[in-house]
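Check this.
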Amino acid sequence: MRGVSHRCIECDEIITNPVCSDCLAKRMRVMVQEFRPGLARGIKGFKTEGDTSCIFCGNLMALCAHCFSEGIYDYLSEKDAMVAKEFLNRFDFDLRKSLVDFS
């Protein structure tokens, strides 16, 4: 019997914001659509079935909001810095903490 694990498959931290990447991607596309519709089409969820249920759709998930948002932020940063900045204002999930350069 497999044990229950509510950890992210990317960072191995406990999932504290249980929103699946599909639900996040829908909301992110709406925001990006306001600025750059072409970029919005590139935002898609990432199916990873785990032991945590999404609070919106109930689907099982294993990727935390922070890790998914970080990937989308990186994608947007490469394409449009202004959109990436606005994205960070709306979908932070502690991204600012991980983006701080301590050197």
